[in-house]
Write a structure and sequence with these properties.
This protein is of the alpha/beta class. The strands form four sheets. Strands 1-8-7-9-10 form a five-stranded mixed beta sheet, sandwiched between helices. Strands 3-2-4-5-6 form a five-stranded parallel beta sheet, with helices on both faces. Helix 1 links the parallel strand 2 and strand 3. Helix 2 packs parallel to helix 3, helix 4 runs parallel beside helix 5 and helix 6 packs across helix 7.
């Protein structure tokens, strides 16, 4: 489809107490005159006020729940789930806060399992839910969280499930596209073409590219989506390349990864978008070895977390657990760090709702393993990212990740 664009153990606070009503009885002797009865004021029943939803009893330990697929038919998902749990435990150790407790629940990678895990977490007194991993499992968890007055830090990158109690902690295509287009525009690349897969990820990348271009004075001049198959890429590449040349684009954004990205890159060059003339731009999916295998992508730019921080985190994880972590493990670490930082602030201030919406969306954000991060009111995350360039043997930093995220929105 073608478009030419103008573009750890705690519980909810409060004990429900009822005072016993003591009734005074006056004894009467058979031969002794009794004094006249004294009027008794009506007894007032003393009941502790009911806790507000989301309140936490700061006088004792506070529990957060991690929902992850530790078992299930998908071995890859189970591996990711175990890595999330390991990294979360690593963060708990690093925080060294004995009042923060972490309990892990297995979702089995299914919506039913995620709902059951969330229900168990609520029953166990969790004050915040971390997870689940998949976007398809998040709405069911959100429904349970709403009824319990809890918020959720999901590991999904599906922006359609964000909002309400759900905050997404991952590196989102929206944020990546915004960082990439902003940097490209600052380098004079202000006429951009977007060749994107017909997926939720591709759609999100296009929307973000259009928004960022509008704010920077750049323009998404051409956009074309394709079926994510070899034939789909082949069929879409020629008309897109022709339209991009006609529109005088100076950069093309390719939100793809792996074999798909290699195919896209080869067809872009074949149909006349010379990477020596038109700058190729990518998103976080470019941050993989497969990108280095396609010569036409060399010199291309993409956003990614600070490589030095990634290496430090990976080395620390390996030292504790004996293997290199999948990249997603850092989300488990950061989610616990967010909980720990909010809880520490609440203890200093005496505020009993440390994991509320306003607290999670605070303008200063949080410090994660890979740098600063922040949640927006819409539930989407912002993260500090560098701009990397594809070289023959690896990736070079052309613009470092910022040390902070700037004023909050």
């Amino acid at each position: 489809m073608f478009r030419s664009l103008p573009v750890a153990a705690g519980s909810l606070p409060g004990l429900f107490l009822a005072a016993s009503l003591a009734l005074g009885l006056t004894a009467c002797g058979p031969t002794t005159a009794s004094p006249p009865p004294t009027a008794q004021a009506p007894a007032v029943q003393q009941t502790a006020p009911a806790p507000r939803l989301g309140e936490v009893d700061l006088s004792g330990p506070v529990q957060v729940a991690l929902l992850a697929p530790l078992t299930g038919a998908d071995s890859g998902a189970a591996e990711a789930g175990r890595a999330l749990a390991n990294a979360a435990q690593m963060a708990l150790t690093d925080l060294a806060d004995p009042s923060l407790r972490l309990k892990v629940y297995d979702t089995s990678g299914s919506p039913e399992g995620a709902r059951a895990a969330a229900q168990a977490a609520v029953g166990d007194g969790a004050a915040l839910i971390l997870g689940p991993l998949f976007g398809a499992n998040t709405p069911g968890v959100a429904g349970i969280a709403v009824r319990a007055g809890l918020n959720v830090i999901s590991f999904s990158t599906d922006s359609s499930v964000a909002g309400g109690p759900v905050f997404l902690s991952g590196f989102l295509p929206e944020a990546e596209a915004e960082r990439m287009v902003n940097f490209a525009a600052s380098q004079g690349l202000d006429r951009i073409g977007v060749f994107y897969p017909r997926t939720a990820y591709g759609d999100a990348a296009l929307r973000a590219a259009e928004d960022a271009a509008f704010r920077t004075g750049a323009r998404v001049a051409v956009a074309y989506n394709y079926e994510r198959t070899f034939e789909g890429i082949q069929d879409g590449a020629e008309p897109f390349a022709g339209a991009a040349r006609d529109a005088g684009v100076t950069a093309v954004l390719l939100p793809e990864g792996g074999k798909g990205l290699q195919t896209v890159g080869a067809f872009m060059d074949y149909h006349g978008l010379n990477p020596a003339v038109v700058k190729y731009l990518g998103l976080g999916q470019w941050n993989a070895g497969a990108t280095l295998m396609e010569p036409t992508l060399r010199g291309g730019w993409f956003p990614a977390p600070d490589p030095d921080r990634v290496e430090i985190f990976s080395n620390l994880y390996q030292a504790r657990f004996g293997s290199r972590p999948p990249f997603i493990a850092v989300l488990g670490y950061d989610a616990v760090q967010v909980a720990g930082q909010l809880l520490a602030d609440a203890r200093r201030s005496g505020w009993t709702r440390p994991f509320g919406h306003d607290e999670l969306t605070r303008a200063e954000g949080f410090q994660g393993a890979l740098g600063p991060l922040r949640f927006g009111p819409d539930g989407l995350s912002q993260r500090a990212m560098a701009i990397l360039e594809v070289d023959t043997g690896g990736f070079l930093i052309v613009d470092p990740a910022p040390a902070w995220l700037g004023p909050g929105s």
